[in-house]
Amino acid sequence: MDKTLKNKNENKKENVGSSESQISIFSERIKNLTEHLKSNKKDHNTRRGLMKLVGKRKKLLSYVKSKSNERYESIIKSLGLRR
């Protein structure tokens, strides 16, 4: 994930609840949990939490896409999702 995007969103206190910042935070957590699960294959509680986060991010992305396709495309490019 692009650290500048995360830092940019975290620096603005009024922007923490925006869809873009939530998606970037979820993406960072998903990345960390994926790395954790590579070494702990039997950690099913973490796997369940990961699946819930992926679902939340997917819902937020579909919301942003329904509101503004340009914002959606910029988020996808900046986070490197959907190759």
Key words describing this protein structure:
elongated, mainly alpha, 83 residues
How would you explain this protein's 3D organization?
It is a single chain. The chain is mainly α. It has 4 helices and no strands. α1 packs across α2 and α3 runs antiparallel to α4.
Strand tally is: 0
What is the strand content? under 5%
Return the average pLDDT rounded to an integer: 88
Rg of Cα set: 13 Å
The stretches of 5 or more residues where confidence is low (pLDDT under 50) are none
Biggest sheet layout: none
Number of helices: 4
Distance between the termini: 14 Å
Q: Helix-strand pattern, N to C?
A: HHHH
Structural class: mainly alpha
What characteristic shape results from the CA principal axes? elongated
Q: Give the fraction of residues assigned to helices.
A: over 70%
Secondary-structure map with pairings?
Layout: H1 3-11, H2 19-39, H3 44-67, H4 69-79
Summary?
Helices cover 78% and strands 0% of the residues.
